[in-house]
Amino acid sequence: MPTEIISHFSQLALAPAVLKAVDEIGYETPSPIQAESIPPLLAGRDLLGQAQTGTGKTAAFALPLLSRLNLELNTPQVLVLTPTRELAIQVAEAMQKYARHLPDFHVLPIYGGQDMGSQLRQLKRGVHIVVGTPGRILDHLGRGTLRLNQIATLVLDEADEMLRMGFIDDVEEILNHTPKERQVALFSATMPDAIRQVARRHLKDPVEIRIQTKTVTVSSISQRYWQVSGVHKLDALTRILEVEEFDAIIIFVRTKTATVELAEKLEARGYASSPLNGDMNQSLREKTVERLKNGALDIVIATDVAARGLNVERITHVINYDIPTDTEAYVHRIGRTGRAGRKGEAILFVSPREQRMLRDIERATRQPITQMQLPSHEDITDKRISQFKQSITDAMASEDLSFFENIINGYQQDHDTGLNEIAAALAFLVQRERPLLLPKKEEKPFKEEANEEGRRTRSPRNRNEREQRPERAERSERAPAKPRAERPERAERTERGDAPSGAMMRYRIEVGRTHGAQPKHIVGAIANEAGLDSNNIGQIKLYDTYSTVDLPEGMPKDVFQHLQKVWVCGQQLRVSVDTDGAAPAPAPSRARSSEPRTTKPRADKPRTRTTSLTSSTDKPRSKTGGDTLRIKRTKKVD
């Protein structure tokens, strides 16, 4: 333990090359966990450290271990175990940054989903530090492609998360492959009994460090919550996005399916957004994070596990679209923003039945979460007008407008029209895609959406109020319903105008049940991307790896080509023509034509859902709310 107050990194006995990198990065005063951890780790002591996420744990072990490396020994000397791929990448990047002045230094992140051949080549070339997830490390140990006989230090980062994810047995197995005389550093936000048992078995006389924090969330994060009521969550989210000044946002949801659904809905509303979940291949996940870092992407919709270890400086807001299941998850979520002294915003959506969790979060964080009012249509209108005026100012200040001035002068002379009228007409044309004046919508009484298990909670209306609804009264005045046996087959379309008019053609799309697809996903994607009214989307049949959908005959070529690239549930639609009753075509090659193709006779029978679609103005039935279409499903008898 340090016996003096450490106010600068120069007071620590770090290697000159490492200290030079620290100075260039701009670090000055070590954080408490760094000041207490670096001296014992430099001295070769085992360490048991407890500190919350975002306190600087990575530098706390990276700086001293880099200072102790033998660069002439081109074999793994340090092994860092992390619970997730994202954290492994983050730690490896930090190591590379701190070691920028160490000659011929090599660090290798190893995790599942990454190309094994690339990992094997780099291991054969030689590395000094390996950072990896337990599963892939064990895989290499089993293959004999990773040897730990020269490991001098083993770091267990976020040990409690590895325990929660079921990796603790793998961690023990890896520890058994390391030399008996080695240094172990274990870092964890909490210290459950299982973690302490691991420490007792594998750490020798460790230095114990516990960083006490007055609050488990940083004061630079402003925390607010919105009481879910009046409007659906998707509409509320888009209002918030309209008004909030943000650079980049992470939106947290509970399920992997919800990341894709919400990303698609936000994309349809003009926001550069993308899902981030464990079902995406690692290459796509890495590209998503890179796009978020370089500004090509503004919004990421993520699950807790997928965002673990994500550290992007651009993130100004964290929105908890779905409330987390425990307080610790909430702390980890909002820790993605407000780092290194930057200001951050955290917004939490809370339904009436989730009030208890809100209070638990406030008690755990020891910080109040203030209630926010949802931006009104007037607020959004004011914001759009302000942005519109600013765009005019920017154009006048930075662009050569002489060519356009000549056009306006000519128009004014030809039509004897005032400049105000011309400017108003031009403003109208410019804002048609994004109207400055929003129509007022009547907000319906709140009704909670379906939860993950598909259960639906009741509206706050009491039973008498529900029974007095106008539609109930209207139905009571109609002719009595026919007996069930006399009703038409439910699989047939009704005569209310729901059925598509005109000739239809059947198309095949490369997304099915195994991808988590439901008819509502397909309908929403086609309606939004093709600009097709939902009434003109016909029967949808779901198979295991693909589906078929009936669309109006004579689809324009540009629409057809656009639908090829649309994503649903993590899969591109890759639309192709299917004949009625035809069988699935073989998997298409990478070099595929943009023209429709026919398919071979189908061998397997589908489990179908025949859909009757109402317009997008109906009440959403999906749990994410918004413009989801109501879908009536019936069993098809084949």
From TrEMBL:
Which residue intervals define the domain Helicase C-terminal in the entry? 233-380
| Domain Helicase ATP-binding intervals | 38-209
Q: Where is the composition biased (Basic and acidic residues)?
A: 440-498, 592-607
Q: What is its main location?
A: cytoplasm
Xref: InterPro entries: CsdA_RRM, DbpA/CsdA_RNA-bd_dom, DEAD/DEAH_box_helicase_dom, DEAD/DEAH_RhlB, DEAD_box_RNA_helicases, DeaD_dimer, DEAD_helicase_DeaD, Helicase_ATP-bd
Q: Which UniProt keywords apply?
A: ATP-binding, Cytoplasm, Helicase, Hydrolase, Nucleotide-binding, RNA-binding, Stress response
On the tree of life, the source organism's domain of life is: Bacteria
Kindly state which reaction or reactions the protein catalyses. ATP + H2O = ADP + phosphate + H(+)
Q: Does the keyword Protein biosynthesis apply?
A: no
Q: Which GO terms describe its cellular component?
A: cytosol; ribosome
Please name the top-level EC class of this enzyme: hydrolase
- Which Pfam families does the record match to this protein? DbpA, DEAD, DeaD_dimer, Helicase_C
What residue intervals hold the motif Q motif? 7-35
Q: Which residues form a coiled coil?
A: none
Enumerate the GO terms in the molecular function aspect. Answer: ATP binding; ATP hydrolysis activity; RNA helicase activity; RNA strand annealing activity
- Please give the PROSITE patterns that the UniProt record associates with this protein: DEAD_ATP_HELICASE, HELICASE_ATP_BIND_1, HELICASE_CTER, Q_MOTIF
Supply the EC number(s).
Answer: 3.6.4.13
Where found?
Cytoplasm
- DEAD-box RNA helicase Q domain mapped to chain residues: 7-35
Q: Specify residue ranges for compositional bias: Low complexity.
A: 582-591
Which residue spans traverse the membrane? none
| Region of interest (Disordered), ranges | 440-504, 579-638
Q: Which GO terms describe its biological process?
A: cellular response to cold; ribosomal large subunit assembly; RNA catabolic process
Describe its function: DEAD-box RNA helicase involved in various cellular processes at low temperature, including ribosome biogenesis, mRNA degradation and translation initiation.
Entry similarity comment: Belongs to the DEAD box helicase family. DeaD/CsdA subfamily.
Name of the protein in its database record: ATP-dependent RNA helicase DeaD
Task: Please name the source species.
Answer: Beggiatoa leptomitoformis
Q: What is the lineage of its organism?
A: Bacteria, Pseudomonadati, Pseudomonadota, Gammaproteobacteria, Thiotrichales
Designated gene of the protein: deaD
